[in-house]
From TrEMBL:
Cross-referenced SUPFAM superfamilies: GST C-terminal domain-like, Thioredoxin-like
The GST N-terminal domain, residue ranges: 1-82
Record GO cellular component, one term: cytoplasm
Species this protein is from: Litoreibacter arenae DSM 19593
Organism lineage: Bacteria, Pseudomonadati, Pseudomonadota, Alphaproteobacteria, Rhodobacterales
Keyword Transferase belongs to the record: yes
GO molecular function: glutathione transferase activity; maleylacetoacetate isomerase activity
PANTHER family assigned to the protein according to its UniProt record, in alphabetical order: GLUTATHIONE S-TRANSFERASE YFCF, MALEYLACETOACETATE ISOMERASE
Protein name: Maleylacetoacetate isomerase / Glutathione S-transferase, zeta
């Protein structure tokens, strides 16, 4: 069985949980408490030198890190349902939307980045929250502008890679009080997603380490 090292509030772990659920792949969850610093313990760093989550350990002991790389692997391991369309142009558009979340919003809002800003540059807790809100708002405007004029999920009637990234990031947006008034389309996508068992089961609150 697959083993997922995860933290309940990690948006990158959330992405992988959704994909595993969508593809019907059984897995065990091993919690890694990022707030307590368990990601920096030597035995964990041996698995994931980035000192983050998720980490996916395959049945033969092979270790995979980085959520987008894991999602790509899972899409090849269990191609149905596909996370990316076959059409090259649509595939590029879906990846661009996914990368807007995964490469524009997430890296600058990562726990270790915000923590460094606080410890080294004196940001207060409120300033740290405003920092995260700013970059989420910027990214959501960009994501929404990339979408075609349609209902349902971002580019399809079924969730794709970009939808998985978006829904996980929206969890953080709600948590940190981002003004979602301009983003009705994104909230519609989230509403569609949360009707699916794969997304519901992956919700942070439904994880074994949720507190």
């Amino acid at each position: 069985m697959l083993t997922l090292y995860s933290y309940w509030r990690s948006t990158t772990s959330y992405r992988v949980r959704v994909a595993l659920n969508l593809k019907g792949l059984a897995y065990d969850t091993v919690p890694v408490n990022l707030v307590a610093g368990e990601q920096r313990e030597l035995d964990y760093v041996a698995k994931n030198p980035v000192k983050g989550v998720p980490t996916l350990v395959l049945e033969d002991g092979t270790v995979l890190t980085q959520s987008l790389a894991i999602l790509d692997y899972l899409d090849h391991l269990a191609p149905d349902p596909a996370l990316l369309p076959n059409d090259p142009l649509l595939r590029a558009r879906v990846q661009a939307a996914a990368h807007t979340i995964a490469m524009e919003i997430h890296p600058v809002n990562n726990l270790k980045v915000v923590g460094h800003l606080k410890s080294e540059y004196g940001l207060t807790a409120d300033q740290g929250t405003e920092w995260m809100r700013h970059w989420m708002t910027e990214g959501f405007h960009a994501y929404q502008a990339l979408l075609p004029d349609r209902s349902g999920f971002s580019f399809s009637d079924t969730p794709l890679l970009c939808d998985i990234c978006l829904v996980a990031q929206l969890y953080n947006a709600h948590r940190w009080g981002v003004d979602m008034t301009p983003f009705a389309r994104l909230l519609e996508i989230e509403e569609h997603a949360m009707k699916l068992p794969a997304f519901e089961a992956a919700r942070p609150e439904n994880q074994p380490d949720a507190t």
